What we know:
Layout: H1 40-43, H2 45-50, E1 55-62, E2 77-85, E3 93-98, H3 106-116, H4 121-125, E4 126-131, H5 148-156, H6 164-185, H7 187-191, H8 195-209, E5 214-219, H9 221-232, E6 237-243, H10 252-274, H11 289-297, H12 315-325, H13 332-344, H14 349-359, H15 370-380, H16 388-401, E7 441-446, H17 454-463, E8 468-471, H18 484-496
Parallel strand pairs: 3-4, 3-5, 5-6, 6-7, 7-8
Antiparallel strand pairs: 1-2, 2-4
Helix pairs in contact: 8-9, 10-16, 12-14, 13-14
Amino acid sequence: MSAMWRRAGSILCALAVVSPMVLFVAPPASSATLAWSACDAMVGEAKARAVPTARCGSVAVPIDWTKTDWTKPEGAQANLAVIRIPATGDRIGVLMVNPGGPGASAVDTVAEMGAALAGSAITERFDLVGVDPRGVGHSTPQLRCRTDAEFDAFRRDPLADYSPAGVAHIEQVYRQFAQSCAQRMGTDFLAGVGTATAARDLDVVRVALGEPQISYLGYSYGTELGAAYAAQYPDRVRAMVLDGAIDPDLDPIEHRIRQMAGFQKAFTAYATDCARSPGCPLGTDPAQFVTRYHQLVNPLVQRPGPTSDPRGLSYQDAITGTVNALYSQRYWKFLTSGLLGLARGTDAEDLLLLADDYQGRDAAGRYTNQQDAFTAIGCVDSPYPADPASWAQLDRRAREVAPFLSYGPFTGFAPRDVCTMWPVPPTSSPHQASSPGPGKVVVVSTTGDPATPYSAGIDLARQMDAPLITFEGTQHTVVFNGDACVDTAVVDFLVDSESPPDGLRC
Length: 506
């Protein structure tokens, strides 16, 4: 299959970690309702035509679970968007899918998966279900902290100067973003978008579907949501596949360092492959790959690079476009084309398109809300150190493990993350995941995954007492992306509850 379901947020922002601090009880079945209709209005006519049996709807949940009695459902609510594609054969139950982010739309993903997996054992035996968490995708209210014009302006700023004055400027940009988010969404809404709440919301949808248990497939951040659900509702898990695992026991600093190291590994793999072709913009000497890359992108701090788009290519967009390409080898050719355009001084359009794809900008200049949701969810999912010294230390370590991402010399100063300025406190903290029971979970991890490094898969499998499927490759996530070895093992587990062989490597 050609689809790649989709990514965790990259090194450009920190990933979230969530703690199962409270075991929630689901609301009475009578209080969770779901009315179905055609999906055209939600996913668009083209996607709806590709899965004509799909039905869409929404489930209401309270903005603040602590202030709501389901017998008295007054107060502010959010509406979770839901898609369901019925099984075509001997039905087992529902397979809920979350594509990651946080902030990616499960509704859109399931619409695409339903078409791509048509005729497979998965669509025959399971209703495919996607639930957009509160604030995400097609759910309402949609979490938006900035306008399209404001996002464009943000991307034009290099955010690369780590002098004291430069750090002060970057932190002011972050502070303004946090304040804008509070003003536009309200602190009550922002306080309730964490992963623990999303897991509780997911169980409300289970009740509305009338299902005693769910099967679940989570990609990237979706593994974190799945692990949170398994901790809160272990008896409601039938089977769970977690692909592109996040280790919930890591603090944000350590997670970011490991992720940066993963992207450096992917960059080296890309550059090595590029060097096999004549005219590679990074040359043929491995010792010079990073230096050549800096020679191409660092001048963009002072002046945008050439593109047919009047925006030009900013420094921030060059880095974002590069990172996007490192998620999958199928994007490498576009990275090469963009870097060649920079080297020749002609047109680096492909790097800008890669950055637009990552940031969710369409040709008309409209953005999805994925990046705003990503930040808001991550900021309440873990505490971030507020002292500047921690972030200077992060910068020092990052330059060691991921030199291709570093600009200029180490200064001893670095901006604190936007989450240190967030208008609501974190609601969770790092923790170890727990098992919902023997034989219920399988973890999949890719050796060269840049966004969710392989070691996280090993750690998550150990914490959940689950078998690990290892995929040898350089990409982010693999299930149902065309590898027969992985897909056969996953289908056998989901359909027949057959665990993969010990130590399976694909």
